[in-house]
Amino acid sequence: MTKIDRTITTVVFDLGNVLIRWDPVAVFEGRLSEGEVAEFMAAVDFPTLNRSLDAGRTWAQARPEVANRAPDHVHHMDAYLRDFERSLVGEVPGTAQIARDLMAAGVRVLGLTNWSAETFEHAPRVAPVLTEFEDILVSGAVGLAKPDPAIFELLIRTTDLVPQESVFIDDSPANVAAAADLGFHALLFTDARTFRADLVALGLGIPDS
């Protein structure tokens, strides 16, 4: 990655599996077997259901449909949401320090996350650095989710950021592509070491290790 001429003023972080390790299976450790978890997730179509909750649907709205489609498994989803904090299995090593280094260097640090508004309260308990962010836009709170360009455009409007002066980091290729289409310097997250090196290459004044 080559250094750019335009100054980077802002870095926008995805949260799940960039700052916070998320593993929904962890909720059921010691409760269900691996096969039982797989059966439950298939029965409720967990990826689609989770995305709808991230996009603003409440569990109260979704539950009747799930109960009708998978009556033997709806109570597992109840348990997942009740014990959601068990799915947050710690910080991603090194990323919180990058955020703090950026703030110390005078860079704006924002969050843009696909996350249910009903469970987001758990995030800062696992990653206290989130309380230091200038702002975090939570998909479930606004009824939009990445990679919909509308949520990026909402972030731009509400924070007055300039995409050409902003880095966006996410572990989803689709989300990275959507941000790049809007002019962000979009990076695919693999690990903190690579992320830090990419930021240094873009000219941000943070330690290189």
Automatic annotation (TrEMBL):
Keyword Hydrolase belongs to the record: yes
UniProt-listed Gene3D superfamilies: HAD superfamily/HAD-like, Putative phosphatase, domain 2
InterPro entries the record matches: HAD-like_sf, HAD-SF_hydro_IA, HAD_sf, PGP-like_dom2
SUPFAM superfamilies recorded: HAD-like
Keywords: Hydrolase
Gene Ontology molecular-function annotations: hydrolase activity
Protein's recorded name: Alpha-D-glucose-1-phosphate phosphatase YihX
Native species: Occultella aeris
Gene name as annotated: yihX
